[in-house]
Amino acid sequence: MKRVWLLFSQSATVLLAAYFVVLTLKPAWMAPRGEGAVELLQAPASRNGEVPAGSFRLAAQKASKAVVSINVSNASRRLPLSPDQWPGFFNGDPGAESDGASGMGSGVIVSASGYVLTNNHVVEGADLIEVILNDRRRARAKVIGTDPDSDLAVLKIELERLPVMVLGDSDDLQVGDQVLAIGNPFGVGQTVTGGIVGALGRNQLGINTFENFIQTDAAINPGNSGGALVDVNGNLLGINTAIYSRSGGSLGIGFAIPVATAKQVLDSIVKDGQVTRGWIGVEPNDLSPELRETFGVAATQGVIITGVLQGGPAAKAGVVPGDVIVAIAGTSVDDVSQLLAQVAALKPGVAAQFSLQRKKQNLQLAITPGLRPRPQKSNR
User: Per-residue pLDDT averaged across 262-270, rounded?
Assistant: First the structure.
């Protein structure tokens, strides 16, 4: 009897020990079926706020502080909605007007003194502009100047301790570089999207008079216009301005004005109150086989002039319809975009040498450009 009791006590001790071992190391084994905790795999916590590999967290945090939302309104009349004033897009009618005469867009603070870059079409026609910072501060904005030809506008706000966007180098940008687009799409609040540069120097899109766009697949939607396109270091590369879309939403083709262009416009507006560009008073067209045949020209390269403004700088210098401009000040001209850009860069009142071809004759004419007339309204 004593031996049986000893065997029983030893067996019970071993079983009890095994139970506690299993309960400690594998508690799920002891849980009733269908009621136990699910065993999950948990990644180790990041140490000291370590940024995951491939994350753009730091760039987004750095740049987002200087990107603002812009609300515009016009109390005196109906304000045509811009492509960034989103109510019409939800109804499938981007060109609709709003009884409230209000709209929205984005902007970028580029100076501690309060200068904000945005698109001209965001603020065009508005008599009340409110800027909302990422830290939720609000301020009325004053329009310092606009440039419809490039679709840029400069605003100014009066606030202290403003975050400022660091300007990057858009001239160093290459196709395939990673970029972030920051703005306030559809008024949902500040949003960061990512993508790459799909193309550079996009023009002849019919959006602006002067076009040299950065193309990206970073999602840009109504409300993003005037916002920032930044590099992986959070530095400004461009001002988001337009999308190619059939529905009003992003289809992966967005366009931004390079920061190099935006800086030139900003400097001119702040210094002179306007952007000064050269102008010669001609109607240029790309040189096509049809136009070559119509005007009987032999040139195979250049821009053909199909109309000349009477009394304009080009007419005074002797330019006539059918002339082909092949170079300006020694720099070749291949298409209308190049011609517009090169003429715009000329200083009004200072003669420049134009190389032309008239039928089979080569000509050199000195044309003194005038000041480019300000357009009545944006091309949009």
Answer: 91
Note the maximum CA span of the chain.
132
Short-list 57, 227, 213, CA closest to 131: 227
d(CA 236, CA 226): 12
Alpha helices in the chain (DSSP H): 2-25, 27-30, 57-64, 87-90, 120-123, 259-272, 289-295, 313-317, 336-344
The model's pTM is 0.70
Q: Which residues form the catalytic set?
A: 121, 151, 225
Pick the CATH number of 278-371 from 2.30.42.10, 2.40.50.140, 3.20.20.70, 3.90.1300.10: 2.30.42.10
CATH of 64-156, one of 3.30.70.60, 2.60.120.260, 2.40.10.10, 3.90.550.10: 2.40.10.10
Q: Report the mean per-residue pLDDT for the chain.
A: 82
For domain 170-272, the CATH class is: mainly beta
